[in-house]
UniProtKB/TrEMBL annotation:
It catalyses: 5-phospho-beta-D-ribosylamine + L-glutamate + diphosphate = 5-phospho-alpha-D-ribose 1-diphosphate + L-glutamine + H2O. Catalyzes the formation of phosphoribosylamine from phosphoribosylpyrophosphate (PRPP) and glutamine. This is Amidophosphoribosyltransferase. One of its GO terms (molecular function) is amidophosphoribosyltransferase activity. Residues 485-527 are annotated as: Disordered.
């Protein structure tokens, strides 16, 4: 099908902000409409992935999966959700960090095992995908197995395929044998016909939290999703922990020792401001980053303004610590996110103005401090400075509440390539001149870390420091498109033999169903 436009928090399409990997959600709640709970949970996690969305449910005997390319509100409607019955659900909203953006790569993925079917959703990025691909090839003679035979080119499909081959008397034991062999960042929410599971990598790179409903349990990438469905936060899933939830209750097992390396960029930008990670408020961390930035570099100025929305908490902190007045210098159009009509060259040149407008009366004649969370290529800051100049700002001092981004991420954030990063090889003065600012300052790495109130040894700062806490494979065995060459070509016979039945429905607008039925068309959904 034709790929749908996706929402973006980037202010310029040609200067995308760091993309937010994925959001995962799972619920075990007899008597509840779990598909609708999952829908609302995904809505709260939409900022983590806007390319595709999917929900799987189980009534105890069979699993159904419905997924498509697009935003949560585009993929699901009342009729679709009503068809997804059951008391267990796993859900996913995707930004692609492995494999392209297409229907075949939407999640949850399906796979069969000797002990039932698995539906799996993944947030993160595995660094040993090449090794996992080699294992699948060694077992089956090729990677054309399970969802991969339909063109799925994600590390998630590799994990789902390998679950079948693990020893163990049930799916829980199979998972306990498979999880220690995976490297990189992963938060898995998956289920069989009768049990909900959640697992987090030993470094705990991405967040994953457990919540309690009156009638059951919820797991999600962030607390905002728990609050949205009325669940009480219990705790984070621990690094290296597997939990299982079924009619017997909840149980926890450890598949690896905890060695925390939580992503510091979750505090800087990725997570919603109302999230808490390891006991620390993300919002307060960002405000403190602004305070620390002001302590490290304060300019004599008239006002402090944020780049909305991500720069707002840090700008609040900067204004507080510097004593300068906080002002809203930009008004953001809340209704701009996806464009169905391609702009003409004239409109394209307007760029950022479709999403932001300067309040001229606020900035004219003023010395302005403008606060943002990060700089990637610099095009966004260049456009913002240009707009402020046109509006009559007398001086423009750009302050960034994170250190210079100089290194790529291999753990689930899709930055620009290192060659495209403006801070790679350029001095601060050169960057300031490039974006047209009178001055530029970044927070120090020590200042950023102090704002999180986390020990440095428990954080991943690789995108700032180049120090990767999880070993990386050789360059030719990593990368977003590593598995794309394994995609079947049009017209190719992709019959995979055993293990194929669970993934029979490969047509947009259908739900794959396991157990009693092979496939159920959702024509009544009138999508």
């Amino acid at each position: 099908m034709a790929e749908r436009s996706r929402l973006s928090h980037s202010l310029l399409d040609e200067d995308p902000a760091p993309q937010d990997e994925c959001g995962v959600f799972g619920v075990w709640a007899p008597g509840e409409e779990v598909a609708k709970l999952s829908f609302y949970g995904l809505y709260a996690l939409q900022h983590r992935g806007q390319e595709a969305a999917g929900i799987a449910t189980s009534d105890g005997t069979r699993i159904q999966v419905y997924k498509d390319v697009g935003l949560v509100s585009q993929v699901f409607n009342e009729a679709t959700l009503t068809t997804l019955g059951g008391h267990i659900s796993v859900a996913h909203c995707r930004y692609s960090t492995t494999g392209g953006n297409n229907w075949a790569n939407a999640q949850p993925t399906l796979g069969d095992t000797p002990h039932g079917t698995v539906a799996l959703a993944h947030n993160g990025n595995l660094t040993n995908s090449a090794d996992l691909r080699d294992r699948v090839t060694a077992i089956h003679g090729s990677t054309r197995y399970g969802e991969m035979r339909q063109g799925n080119t994600t590390d998630t499909a590799l994990v789902t395929a390998l679950m079948r081959e693990q020893e163990g008397e049930d799916i829980e034991e199979q998972a306990m044998n498979l999880l220690p062999t995976l490297k990189g960042a992963f938060c898995f929410v998956f289920m069989s016909e009768s049990t909900l599971y959640a697992a987090r990598d030993p470094q705990g790179v991405r967040p994953l939290v457990l919540g309690r409903l009156a009638s059951g349990w919820v797991v999600a990438s962030e607390q905002s999703a728990l609050a949205t469905v009325g669940a009480t936060v219990i705790r984070e899933i621990e690094p290296g922990e597997l939990i299982a939830i079924d009619s017997s209750g909840i149980r926890s097992r450890r598949f690896a020792e905890s060695a925390p390396a939580r992503c510091v960029f979750e505090y800087v930008y990725l997570s919603r401001p109302d999230a808490h990670i390891n006991g620390r408020s993300v919002y307060e961390s960002r405000v403190e980053m602004g305070r620390q930035l002001a302590r490290e570099d304060t300019h004599d100025a008239d006002i402090v303004i944020p780049v909305p929305e991500s720069g707002t908490p840090a700008a609040v902190g900067y204004a507080e610590a510097s004593g300068l007045p906080f002002a809203q210098g930009f008004i953001k159009n809340s209704y701009v996110g996806r464009t169905f009509i391609q702009p003409s060259q004239t409109l394209r040149q307007l760029g950022i103005r479709l999403k932001l407008n300067v309040q001229e009366h606020v900035v004219r004649g003023k010395r302005v401090v403008v606060v943002d969370d990060s700089i990637v290529r610099g095009n966004t800051q260049r456009a913002i400075v240009g707009m402020l100049r046109e509006a009559g700002a007398r001086e423009i001092h750009v302050k960034i509440s994170s250190p210079p981004v100089q290194w790529p991420c291999f753990y689930g954030i899709d930055f620009a390539s290192r060659a495209e990063l403006i801070a790679n090889g350029a001095t601060m003065g050169q960057i300031a001149r490039s974006v047209g600012a009178d001055s530029l300052a970044y927070i120090s790495e020590d200042g950023m870390i102090a704002a999180t109130k986390q020990p440095r040894s428990t954080l991943c700062t690789a995108c700032f420091s180049g120090q990767y806490p999880i070993e990386l494979p050789a360059e030719d065995r990593r990368g977003k498109m590593l598995l794309e060459k394994d995609r079947p070509v049009a017209g190719e016979n992709t019959d995979a033999g055993d293990g194929a039945a669970a993934e029979e429905a490969a047509v947009t607008g259908e739900t794959a169903v396991t157990g009693e039925t092979t496939e159920k068309t959702l024509a009544e959904a009138e999508r």
